[in-house]
Design a protein that fits this description.
The complex is a heterodimer of chains A (241) and B (787).
Chain A (H helix, E strand, L loop, with lengths): L9 E14 L2 E14 L3 E5 L6 H8 L7 E6 L2 E2 L5 H11 E5 L10 H9 L8 H7 L15 H13 L5 E5 L7 H18 L2 E6 L10 E6 L2 E7 L12
Parallel strand pairs in A: 3-8, 3-9, 6-7, 7-8
Antiparallel strand pairs in A: 1-2, 1-4, 4-5, 9-10
Chain B lengths: L2 H51 L5 E9 L2 H6 L4 E7 L1 E7 L7 E8 L11 E5 L9 E5 H7 L6 E6 L2 E12 L19 E7 H7 L5 E9 L5 H12 L8 E2 L4 H42 L1 H9 L4 H41 L11 H27 L3 H5 L12 H9 L2 H12 L1 H39 L4 E9 L3 H6 L4 E16 L2 E10 L8 E3 L4 E2 L6 E4 H7 L6 E6 L5 E12 L6 E4 H7 L6 E8 L4 H9 L4 E6 H55 L4 H37 L13 H23 L7 H6 L3
Parallel strand pairs in B: 4-9, 6-8, 14-20, 17-19
Antiparallel strand pairs in B: 1-10, 1-11, 2-10, 3-4, 3-7, 5-8, 6-9, 7-8, 12-21, 12-22, 13-14, 13-18, 13-21, 15-16, 15-19, 17-20, 18-19
Classes of the chains: A alpha/beta (241), B alpha+beta (787).
Chain lengths: 241, 787
Amino acid sequence: MSALPENQAGVFIVENLTKTYRTGEVEVHALRGVSATLYEGEISVVLGPSGSGKSTFLNIIGGLDTATSGNVKFRDIDLSNAGESALTRFRRNHVGFVFQFYNLIPSLTARENVALVTEISSNPMRPEDALSLVGLGPRMDHFPAQLSGGEQQRVAIARAIAKNPDVLLCDEPTGALDSNTGRRVLEALTRINDELGTTTAIISHNAVIRRLAHRVFYFADGEIAKEEVNNNRLTPSQMEW
Amino acid sequence: MRALDKKLLRDFKRLWPQALAISLVLACGVATLILAVGTYRSLEETRQAYYERYRFASVFATATRAPNSLMRKISRISGVSTAEGRIVEPALLDITGMREPASASVISMPDYEPSRLNRLYLRAGRLPQPGKPGEAVVSESFAREHGFRVGSTFSGTLAGRRIEFQITGLAMSPEFIYAIGPGDLVPDHRRFAVIWMRESQMSGLSNLDDAFNSVSLTLLPGTSQRAVIAELDQLLQPYGGTGAYGRKDQTSHAFLDSELQALRAMAGVIPPIFLFVSAFLINMILSRLIALEREQIGLLKALGYSRRAVSMHYLKLVLVISLAGVAIGFGAGTWLGDGLTRIYTEFFDFPFLIFLRSFDVYLLAAGVSVAAAVLGALKSVLAAASLPPATAMRQAAPTLYRRSSFIGRWLAGMVSQLTVMAVRHVIRWPLRSGFTMLGTSLAVALLITAIFIFGSINFMIDTVYFKTDRQDATITFTTPLGTDAVQAVKKLPGVLSAEPFRMMMVELSNGSYSRRLMITGKPKSTRLSRVLDLNLDPVLLPSSGLVLSERVAHHLKARRGDMIRVRLLDEGGSVVEVPVADITQSYLGLDVYMDLDALNRLSRVGPRLSGVFVELDPAKYDAIYAAIKAMPKAASIALRAESLKKFRETIEENIVIMTTVYAVLAVIIAFGVVYNSARILLSERARELASLRVLGFSRREVASVLTIELAVLALLAQPLGWVLGYGFSWAVVQGFQSDLYRMPFVVENSAYGWSSMVVLISSILSALIVIARVARLDMIRVLKTKE
């Protein structure tokens, strides 16, 4: 696979990010001063054990949550000081999400689930094209209950990319899938990165996935323990897990 | 406390707004049941006790003049227990400080013995002494209205003679629980009095020495009232007997009866609506709760809890909700019941009130409420209890949607995916959507049924007072007069025009169907008192033949052209055959009309007048009232403006009370249904809605998924509510058909409009409370967890 794109610019610039939750009497320091940069066109994989802060990090850069302190910039947009409606606009215009549990709308078919997003986007692809990209062209008029787990996750990916987002954020996209199905999902993600050049961040606790990344962040105890650049990328079919 | 009960308590704490909404709906059922049955029983018991203690008669008859010796024959009619003859005369009263004349019914009582029937309940003072002129007992409500006390005096004209009445006592009578004067529809105690005098006084005044003109009977148990009436009519016929009747046609009894009937209908219709809605609501929230707690149920069973223990756990929650409803309902029902009974005492004159706090009504109300709640819960509870632990702990299969229908395909191309989501959800759960709709529509229907009555009454009033009887006053004479009387009335000051009428007591028969009633003869073309056809257009009376009102035609099974046997009861019972010339509309009484000349031709005694309808100059009311007060031949006067004013006042008071009560009931149903539906919807779709928020939909867009679904159901409920409301209203009108009055069936558009508005506004407010929660959806938590 290709190595790092050259002369890339930072899409997300994160500085000194902290996040403290209060659950009852207990204060949880989910992030303790994280600084990182995600680059244009790269696939970044975020690894770490449960509770290491990786999901909190993704939620904050995705505009689902706000930081306690520190700065997050998406291109020219300062997410650290953005209000509720600015964050909604940011998610709507720039971010595609993929989650472990798919989060499809059961009352809408695959095509309609994708159309849900294309209807509110300014520059979307056709829902049919998005579904073809993830290999679901023939099953697009099925409802979620009529699709397998892998198929449902691929619908979720199609839904995430259909608006041509600037970034694709995936939280454990293969967490609920067996290895074969997981591999197909990852193939869909790398194909999109290759063909559309979408900046992608994937959270996983499965270390094997780091092999397909351009860049890997290792989270531990709310901090980035290590950041490495991967110059020997593998395709999902070459990976074993 | 056991762990499971702690869970129950916490569940209840969490669910309290929904539980309260259901408890309130249930409370309405309990309250209306207690209110209706409790008030019905109290009123019925009070009436029964009053009738028994004060010996209210069960058969009544009038005659022109029957000798007292006839009483012995009447007493001997088989089945008669007690019989009493008396004198009843109308009088016009001239009360100081009151511009218009008041009307009175003056009734005799035996000189030296207590009345055997229709006894008085003496509130104050004493009975008149025989031989003391002018001494009288008057109805307490009339005295109260004028500030009269024992010793007060007022004057009046009885049988053409001026009398000074001196009040010796204030009383009530079981005959006049609902006391209405001539031409009135509701009691006006200012303008109508009942006066009791000693027989010797009255017979002298009305030239009925050793005679009577009214008779009352009570019957032995098991006696056929019909047979006694037939025999009594036979005996009285030579003396101008105008047909005996039972309690059901006695004015006061009949009005009270129709009120009791309304209460009984209320008990039969309204509580079941609330019970049904609460059963459905309980079913809805419990199924959702159990769906959410599948894993917990599985765990409980895995830990060794039995099916029974699991069922009981959820049933306890239902019991808490229903017992809360029962408690609120007990309080509200008792409070409203006392209020309603108090309102009744304004219309009905009872000397005492028996408040029956019947234990069984409360028990019944509690029983059916808990039963309805448990019934609503049963399916979900049994389903929960029978879940095998392994299945229960596994995730439920995702809901399968289909896009089979044509509407679905068509819709999918037309509207946004958010709308498609909302509509598919409605279709996916047809039963629940249907019940939500039905519940909301019942709120609309209930309100229409409460509001339409006033439209119907208005229509009736408009027809009666503005299309039919347009005369300002109706003066009836003490005895029939010659035709020149109309000229005399015309000459009175302030009389603009006058139209004569004659009334004759007859028995009409068509085959085996017969009725005793009055024929009213009027001039062919009348301007004041008119006759309306079935389309409510004025008609000219035909030169010959009978014009029957619809109700009479119905009783006699008569159609136009049928020959009717007319027995002239005023004239010794001679019989003539007269064809039915026309059938007309009339909402009050049993009207039969004839052209005055034609009626005069039937009579052996020649042309006579019973009274005149007059049109008055509003500027000269004082003069005309003074003249009528001084008119010896005037027996009674009915004043349109005064009747109308009193009626409107009464109705307006009722409108406010009734629409308020029903609006509150409707709002509670709408709130209960919509709030709970919205909460369930939010709970079921929280995950989807949070996903939409993540995808970049704004709060308002996300909320629209809920609002569209709720709006679709609320809007679809409106036409259904209108149809149900129309049906309920029709049933009410059928229930109120009596010989005294018929309510026209008129549902004004405003009734639909107001009902829908109240229900829609309360639906919107209930939905808004829930929709505000969309803002609080936790996107991250929802996405991180399995459903």
